[in-house]
């Protein structure tokens, strides 16, 4: 394994803060133990650097050019051309194809062994959809389809907190009224299998201990407040415990996220997006990374959106993107280093 991993960093929605964050990190890489190549439009990045008064030199790389070790004030770039001019803070759906092409370049580099991991700055789903991609639902699903896998798992991690808090989701971007119908034994088993396997493979945890939330208040209260725990979740966990997995639950979500329960846990599985992520973001917003598990490649991202109102202002905080880079390095190394 390379001593200095190569991370492909997609710069996200060009009108958002993705270019700003990328440039802010390039101005001062700090102790990053990896080489980074941005994927985006060099002219856009140069113009945004000038607007932000950042002394960063943009270095476009041709196919086959080596990516150098990080140097403050230098940003290597794999060029992808914008489809339309960009104004910071103003979406233009004409650039939807540009954003997706940056993802395609990074995915191909990882799958071909030219990059060790990809890290993604935020994109804007609405702009992609309005730009002619009506079925687009987000990075996670796009990566799943591009890598031709049946199932992926979204995990957010506050790796810099003590203890580290990692929250995975049984369902992702669904309306709340659709969540209960989406919880079934097969899906729950697949998510837990992926989560447990990648905690071992990517994070170096020999026997992961996973806490599992119930779906309903009080974890269903023995069927009086909902039957999903009794009929689906508890039997699935019991069966998988019999196969050797260390699973605890289903637990009421309102008490699971307390120090007593989390002290010896390696991850939490929440049943839906807004059950687990508000807790994690309260604990470490701007200091967490979004990780896609179940892929044949490593992908991490930020824990926030495009922040159009901050684009080009110099007020965007690059903390989450830095965590995403650090977590990617740790995953490349199989969990042997910790940010």
UniProtKB/TrEMBL annotation:
Domain of life per record: Bacteria
Gene: pdxA
Pathway listed: Cofactor biosynthesis; pyridoxine 5'-phosphate biosynthesis; pyridoxine 5'-phosphate from D-erythrose 4-phosphate: step 4/5
Chief subcellular location: cytoplasm
Keywords: Cobalt, Cytoplasm, Magnesium, Metal-binding, NAD, NADP, Oxidoreductase, Pyridoxine biosynthesis, Zinc
One cellular component (GO) term of this entry: cytoplasm
Subunit structure: Homodimer.
Pfam families, A to Z: PdxA (PF04166)
Catalytic activity: 4-(phosphooxy)-L-threonine + NAD(+) = 3-amino-2-oxopropyl phosphate + CO2 + NADH
UniProt-annotated binding residues for a divalent metal cation: 173, 218, 273
Cofactor remark from the record: Binds 1 divalent metal cation per subunit. Can use ions such as Zn(2+), Mg(2+) or Co(2+).
Broadest EC class assigned to this enzyme: oxidoreductase
GO MF terms, alphabetically ordered: 4-hydroxythreonine-4-phosphate dehydrogenase activity; cobalt ion binding; magnesium ion binding; NAD binding; zinc ion binding
HAMAP family, A to Z: PdxA (MF_00536)
Protein localization: Cytoplasm
Role noted for this protein: Catalyzes the NAD(P)-dependent oxidation of 4-(phosphooxy)-L-threonine (HTP) into 2-amino-3-oxo-4-(phosphooxy)butyric acid which spontaneously decarboxylates to form 3-amino-2-oxopropyl phosphate (AHAP).
Official protein name in the record: 4-hydroxythreonine-4-phosphate dehydrogenase
Family, similarity comment: Belongs to the PdxA family.
Miscellaneous section: The active site is located at the dimer interface.
Cofactor: Zn(2+); Mg(2+); Co(2+)
InterPro entries, per the entry: PdxA, PdxA_fam
Keyword Zinc attached: yes
GO biological processes: pyridoxal phosphate biosynthetic process; pyridoxine biosynthetic process
Entry EC no(s): 1.1.1.262
Annotated residues for binding of substrate: 139-140, 281, 290, 299
């Amino acid at each position: 394994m390379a001593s200095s991993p190569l991370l492909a960093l997609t710069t996200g929605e060009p009108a958002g803060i993705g270019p700003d964050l990328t440039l802010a990190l390039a101005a001062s890489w700090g102790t990053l133990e990896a080489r980074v190549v941005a994927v985006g439009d060099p002219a856009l990045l140069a113009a945004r650097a000038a607007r932000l008064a950042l002394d960063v030199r943009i270095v476009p790389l041709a196919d086959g050019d080596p990516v150098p070790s990080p140097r403050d004030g230098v940003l290597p770039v794999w060029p992808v051309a914008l489809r339309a001019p960009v104004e910071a803070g103003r979406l233009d759906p004409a650039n939807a194809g540009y954003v997706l092409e940056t993802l395609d370049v990074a995915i191909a580099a990882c799958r071909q062994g030219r990059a060790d991991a990809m890290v993604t700055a935020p994109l804007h789903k609405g702009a992609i959809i309005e730009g002619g991609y009506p079925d687009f639902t987000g990075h996670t699903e796009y990566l799943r389809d591009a890598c031709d896998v049946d199932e992926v798992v979204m995990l957010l991690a506050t790796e810099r907190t003590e203890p580290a808090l990692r929250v995975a989701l049984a369902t992702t971007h669904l309306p709340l009224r659709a969540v209960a119908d989406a919880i079934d034994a097969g899906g729950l088993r697949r998510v837990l299998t992926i989560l447990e396997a990648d905690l071992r493979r990517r994070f170096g945890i020999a026997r992961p201990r996973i806490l599992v939330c119930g779906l309903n208040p009080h974890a269903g209260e023995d069927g009086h407040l909902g039957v999903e725990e009794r009929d689906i979740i508890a039997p699935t966990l019991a069966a998988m415990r019999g196969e050797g997995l260390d699973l605890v639950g289903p637990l009421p979500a309102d008490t699971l996220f307390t120090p007593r329960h989390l002290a010896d846990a390696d991850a939490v599985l929440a049943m839906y997006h807004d059950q687990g992520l508000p807790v994690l973001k309260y604990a470490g917003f701007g200091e967490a990374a979004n990780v896609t598990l179940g892929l044949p490649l490593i992908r991490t991202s930020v824990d926030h959106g495009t922040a159009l109102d901050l684009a080009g202002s110099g007020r965007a905080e690059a903390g989450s993107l830095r965590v995403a880079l650090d977590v990617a390095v740790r995953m490349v190394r199989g969990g042997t280093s910790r940010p």
